[in-house]
Design goal:
CATH class of the largest domain: Alpha Beta
Distance between the termini: 55 Å
Strand order of the largest sheet: 1-3-2-4-7-6-5
Number of domains: 2
Largest sheet: 7 strands, mixed
CATH architecture of the largest domain: 3-Layer(aba) Sandwich
Radius of gyration: 24 Å
Structural class: alpha+beta
Order of helices and strands: EHEHHEHEHEHEEHEHEEEHEEEHEE
Strand content: 15-25%
Length: about 375
């Protein structure tokens, strides 16, 4: 069999790609748009026995996340995979190498399933935690997910991830990987605190002369009285999801040994709007919503030091009493936590492209704030 890749578009695979398809990483950092390549390892799909479905699924998810990705390259297992990995990670000029390389397939136990072994040949550093997160996501749906072998890590300035050769495995894997892409690529470019940073703030001034305390008053600290208060803020999690939101879990994720206050917001579905009964709401997210939510959280983290941020927005059909938005902000002291939580909720509602259609008691529906 020829080692030339079988391109599902029936167009010959190009060696270097056009200049337009390889934006500079500096531009990617400004826009949050990165360049990805999807390689599918499947001997039968490469031979045209059946069409591959995992590759198009990966490409669609990457594009919907706002990144650039050409159509998938499908090759036979084994040496053809090595040839493509070598081409993209070694032969291409550094500026043309992808920011993300997804290799789907060849992660099982068949004799020719060699994708993880090939991938590791090119990795400078492995990221085992990424694979553990991918397996954990798969286990929510399929107990055999742990049988999928894989490797994840960085090769030069490329994040490389092996995923199963199934649509479900690709969806699970990319739901873990895509939210990490901006953080990883910026760190590879030397930004030590990228992805969850805040610029060093001016020294916090001393408080004004104290007022007479009220009965029962207990003195509290001032934001800035400890080095952690001026340390870079951390975006722990920023996620758009269809799963039910757990307020306690989100607040616990925000908390740490250095935080003395966690301020949380829960956006709950109420049973009325404008005097009319409401039975349920449908939340619809634009494909870029996940990226925008991450960006909004990063913006707030850059404006305020010393906080930990968790934000999750639910989509799909929600009933009265369900939570649509959970935000938790932890800080050393309550005032800073209240301030940042309030600012972040406003920013999310203003900027993240998620829309709601409410179902009214009389059977009619209407979009809200459109």
């Amino acid at each position: 069999m020829s080692d030339q890749p079988f391109d599902q578009t029936r167009q010959p695979a190009t060696a270097g790609g056009s200049d337009e398809s390889h934006e500079t990483r500096a531009h990617a950092e400004r826009t949050g748009t990165y360049h990805a390549v999807v390689l599918v390892a499947s001997t039968r799909a490469a031979a045209g026995v059946y069409p591959d479905k995992s590759g198009p699924t990966a490409v669609q998810m990457i594009r919907e996340a706002g990144h650039e990705c050409p159509d998938p390259i499908v090759v036979a297992d084994g040496e053809p995979v090595r040839a493509q990995v070598h081409h993209h990670l070694r032969e291409l000029p550094a500026a043309q190498r992808p920011d993300l390389m997804v290799i789907s397939g060849g992660t099982g136990l068949m004799p020719d399933d060699l994708t993880p072994e090939i991938t590791r040949e090119y990795l400078d550093r492995e990221l085992p935690g990424v694979m553990h997160a991918i397996w954990a996501e798969g286990l929510k749906k399929l107990h055999t997910a742990v049988l999928s072998r894989g490797a994840a890590g960085v090769a030069g300035k490329t994040l490389v991830v092996d995923l199963p050769g199934s649509r479900g495995g690709v969806k699970d894997g990319l739901s873990v990987v895509l939210p990490l892409l901006d953080h990883v690529t910026q760190q590879l470019d030397g930004h030590r605190d990228a992805g969850h940073r805040a610029p060093t703030a001016d020294p916090v001034g001393l408080p004004s002369a104290p007022q007479a305390p009220s009965a029962g008053y207990q003195p509290h600290g001032v934001h800035g009285d400890h080095p952690v208060d001026t340390a870079p803020s951390v975006v722990v999690t920023a996620r758009v999801t269809e799963r039910r939101l757990d307020a306690a879990e989100i607040q616990a994720a925000a908390s740490s040994r250095t935080t003395g206050a966690v301020v949380a917001f829960s956006g709950i579905i109420r049973d009325h709007d404008g005097g009319r009964p409401v039975t349920q709401l449908d939340y619809t997210a634009h494909p870029t919503a996940q990226n925008v939510l991450l960006r909004v959280c990063d913006e707030v983290a850059q404006e305020f030091t010393g906080v930990r941020i968790v934000a999750e927005h639910r989509t799909g059909r929600l009933l009265v009493g369900d939570s649509a938005l959970e935000v938790a902000v932890a800080a050393s002291h309550r005032k800073r936590a209240f301030e940042v939580c309030d600012a972040l909720v406003d920013r999310i509602k203003e900027k993240v492209p998620i829309w709601k259609e409410q179902h009214l008691g009389d059977g009619t529906r209407e979009w809200v704030n459109l």
